[in-house]
Design brief:
single chain, 4-stranded antiparallel β-sheet, disordered N terminus
Length: 540
């Protein structure tokens, strides 16, 4: 049964990513209809305006009633309608009634609470049952009707779709078509922690596809608005390819399909090779890796459903931008515009399997962009894996701390020590930090052969185990970095080397795996690791 659940989840969240929707938009409605995400068990965002939309016959009057609100609107000539509910207070289970001229749709078991979107690539897709340790942590809390999940099929499309394939599912420990086991580990564990701490219903969409770059999740308008030449080129490519597809579908596809079907029957009759299915003359046609394809087919149709924020775990592949920082800037601006929420939170997971310069771009994005955060997870790798890090509940926990502090205003520490400034004092460099929390701490380095990590390996035992800081290098005016001695002195770290008498630069974890993982030793006593950093601005 478990294998069947994994396969089902993979089909919905990954395999469908490369599918091309032959009919990418909802056709003119002949009856009252709502998007798939407005269904039984859905969660509506509390305390902000809530858009509701759908389709009906042209010029039909549509009324939406929920709690003490009743709002009426009319469809346009295209059969589309949209209205906005006033902010709702948290609720466990209510009904929404949508009434047209001749039809009524009653949506049952609607919760009102906090709604988030989890997006990215394979690390966001990986299910909770991949790691027994993660599964053991979430199972005691799995039977919870106040936690609802909505996996969204990753359909690639050259046209912005009106709807998606999706279904809301209340959390349960009992296997269903897709449940706790097959759902995104990070998405689920994040939502579960918010549910336990905020004590209101929590709903989470997962719109993620393995192996894709970031550009498929940005609208063409969002890429065009960027100053990055690579992103502008992606938008231009999308415009060109989508125009080619539209022209082909209008002028070529009808006759091509007639010929294909006739040739197919002839091949069956003569037992010869089957004809090739007609496709537009576009390189990589239907690929989810192409610019805006997943925005059109998976993410964009969710907008403007009211949400509080989004999680983003992506970065192992490029996909067009000249600078990943520019991609993050474009993505957050595009999503905030699409959701009509200029303060929408975006919480980013820092990538392990990349260069230190790449991780620095993610760090600088967080530091420069309000209502964002960065979860550092260097210590969640093991001796065999550093791309798909094993311990997803640790990453989810750190994301939830950011949400609780940055988004919900809770007075807690949510980040490890972040480099702030350096003072050079003879042969020593004295580093100061923000997010010191309860104080700086040194964690014992991880055994480089470890296949199973303990809580202490991930910062869970800092008061009992102190150690020498590793991962620091230092250089003088010649810019030749050598391993350094580093020790905690109060709220500072003092770094030195007998090989550098007049230091000018210090770096921490400016490396790739495995040193990135084994030498992650600088934490605060709140159990959170420091992100890699450098005091210099050298190009290398």
């Amino acid at each position: 049964m478990m294998n069947r659940l994994i396969i089902t989840a993979a089909v919905l969240l990954t395999l469908l990513a490369s599918a091309y929707a032959a009919d990418p938009v909802v056709k003119a409605a002949t009856k009252l209809k709502l998007p798939a995400i407005f269904s039984d068990h859905m969660v509506l965002q509390r305390e902000i305006a809530v858009p509701v939309w759908g389709w009906a016959v042209a010029d039909e009057e549509v009324t939406v009633a929920i709690v003490d609100q009743t709002i009426t609107t009319k469809t346009g000539a295209d059969g589309k309608w949209k209205l906005t509910l006033k902010p709702l207070t948290a609720a466990d289970s209510i009904e929404m009634v949508v009434k047209g001229k001749e039809q009524t749709i009653t949506i049952k078991d609607v919760a009102v609470g906090e709604v988030w979107v989890a997006s990215g690539q394979s690390n966001m897709c990986i299910p909770i049952n991949r790691n027994a340790d993660d599964l053991q942590k979430i199972m005691p809390y799995a039977d919870d009707p106040g936690l609802r999940m909505c996996p969204v099929a990753g359909v690639a499309s050259y046209v912005l779709r009106d709807d998606v394939t999706a279904s809301w599912i209340p959390s349960s420990s009992k296997p269903k078509i897709i449940n706790t086991y097959g759902f995104s580990a990070i998405g689920y564990a994040f939502a579960q922690e918010l549910r336990r701490t905020l004590k209101v219903p929590v709903g989470i969409f997962v719109a993620a596809v393995g192996g894709v770059p970031g550009t498929p999740y940005i609208s063409p308008e969002g890429m065009e608005a960027s100053n990055d030449a690579g992103l502008k080129n992606c938008a231009e490519r999308y415009r060109k390819d989508s125009a080619t597809v539209a022209k082909w579908k209008a002028e070529v596809e009808p006759d091509a399909m007639v010929k294909y079907l006739a040739d197919k029957e002839l091949a069956k009759k003569n037992n010869t090779a089957m004809p090739i299915y007609p496709k537009p003359p576009v390189v990589g046609f239907g690929s989810s890796s192409n610019p805006s394809m997943l925005y059109n087919g998976q993410l964009g149709p969710l907008q403007p459903y009211a949400i509080r924020g989004a999680l983003w775990y992506q970065g192992e592949s490029g996909g067009g931008p000249n600078d990943y920082r520019a991609l993050l800037d474009a993505l957050v601006a595009d999503w905030r515009k699409g959701w009509n929420n200029p303060e929408m939170a975006l919480l980013v997971v820092q990538i392990t399997a990349q260069s230190p310069e790449f991780r620095e771009k993610q760090l600088k994005f967080w530091q420069a962009t309000p209502n964002t955060g960065l979860a550092v997870i260097n210590d969640t790798c093991d001796a065999k894996e550093w791309v798909h890090v094993k311990y997803k509940t640790v990453a989810a926990h750190r994301l939830s701390l950011i949400a609780r502090a940055v988004t919900y205003g809770e007075k807690i520490e949510y980040s490890g020590p972040v480099y702030d400034s350096v003072k050079f004092d003879g042969p020593k460099a004295v580093l100061s930090f923000t997010h010191v929390g309860a104080g700086l701490a040194a964690k014992v380095p991880v055994d480089p052969t470890a296949l199973v990590l303990t809580a202490a390996d991930m910062g869970g035992d800092l008061t009992a185990k102190g150690g020498v800081l590793k991962g620091f290098t230092i250089a003088g005016a010649d810019n030749k970095f050598v391993p350094a001695i580093a020790e905690i002195v109060g709220d500072t770290v003092v770094v030195s080397s007998d090989k550098v008498t007049q230091p000018t630069s210090v770096r921490y974890l400016w490396s790739r795996w495995p040193e990135l993982w084994t030498d992650t030793t600088l934490y605060n006593l709140d159990g959170l690791p420091a992100p890699p950093f450098r005091t210099d601005k050298l190009s290398r």
